[in-house]
Amino acid sequence: MSTTIQLEPVAGFCIKSTVNDAPNHGLKVFVNIAWDPHVPQPPPGSELRIRRAMLGHDVDDPNPDAWYVPVVVSDGRQDKDKAGKPALVFDCVYNTSLKSRTLTDPEFKLFIVELALQRIEAQTSLVLSRQIGTPNIVSKGKLLPRTVNIPSSLLTKGSTHSILPAPSTTHQLIQEVSPPVAPSSTKPKGILKSASTSTLKERSSTPTWSWSKDGTKIQIKISLPNLPRALIEHATLDIEPRRFILHVNDYPVFDINLGLSDAEIVATAASRTSASLHDGNGTEPNNTLTLKRQRPLDVDGATSEWRLADNMLVIVA
């Protein structure tokens, strides 16, 4: 379920960065920080909770009431800088209630900027420089109205709009709302080449997975369609605090590395669904990004079992 709302963002300020990696190294990126009252507000929180979020102390906090900041991130659109060279422009729209603190608290402004950069990186797989410029403009280009789908995963009390819980970034706990319905045709290409599929089985046999909390433990379910029982005897499972790898003959190596950056996870995901990083549909990179926010896996206490009737391996760690 989702609610479609109309945004008319008001320009706040603009920052300028550059792409740090090939093949787009040196490409200028303008980020418009904007405000709209229809973007969901952060939840109520004490000053201590807000400061903890700004410092990244709540990244692994399982408390669903941990403080976060919703943001709507646009697709990248092509533009040019003053010299006429190609550039990309993104809009990051926050609730209007954050404007006053951004104007009076320099550390909070840096926090908002960092959230915007990390969301863009996760959405596009670009790696952006933290050497930030502040052009003397409130926005790069005109901010146009846009329609946004907001899934009803979480409701704010007293609000008529629902909001989507999304994973935190590497340094801060945030939530993201899905971008405009009609994606731009100018969305940047991924920076990593796709893995070769010449030696893999057809897609119907590609492992899929999900995770959930089982008390104090984390339960991971890996499904392998059409799994012959004979292959289970030779399967191997390696579990590390921030990684697990499953080897099954005739299947793609199933390697989930929680130690990668958000951008690397998105770039190497099996499906490019980074526009909505936690839409609840169990696709990648959603699972990896959300599990990354949890505590390290309990290697010493980990158990695993095959559920043959379901062609599934269940890990509890």
What features would you highlight for this structure?
6 helices; 4-stranded antiparallel beta sheet; 317 residues; 6-stranded mixed beta sheet; elongated; alpha+beta; single chain
List the helices and strands and how they pair.
Blueprint: E1 2-7, E2 10-18, E3 28-36, H1 47-55, E4 70-73, E5 77-80, E6 86-95, H2 99-104, H3 106-124, E7 146-151, E8 154-155, E9 162-163, E10 175-177, E11 208-214, E12 217-223, H4 229-232, E13 236-240, E14 243-247, E15 254-257, H5 262-267, H6 286-292, E16 303-307, E17 312-316
Parallel strand pairs: 3-6, 4-10
Antiparallel strand pairs: 1-7, 2-3, 4-6, 5-6, 8-9, 11-12, 12-17, 13-14, 14-15, 16-17
Explain what this protein looks like in three dimensions:
The chain has 317 residues and is of the alpha+beta class. Helix content is 16%, strand content 29%. The chain contains six helices and 17 strands. Strands 2, 3, 4, 5, 6 and 10 form a six-stranded mixed sheet that branches. The protein has a four-stranded antiparallel sheet with strand order 11-12-17-16, with no helix packed on it. The longest helix is centred in the middle third of the chain and has 19 residues. 33% of the residues are buried. About 20% of the residues have low confidence.
Radius of gyration: 21 Å
Strand content range:
25-35%
Number of helices: 6
Low-confidence runs:
154-204, 270-282
Q: Secondary-structure element order, as H and E? A: EEEHEEEHHEEEEEEHEEEHHEE
For the report, how would you describe the main beta sheet?
6 strands, mixed
Based on CA inertia axes, which overall geometry fits?
elongated
Between the first and last Cα atoms, what is the distance in angstroms?
Answer: 32 Å
Tell how many strands the DSSP assignment holds.
17
Helicity level:
10-25%
Average pLDDT over all residues: 76
Structural class: alpha+beta
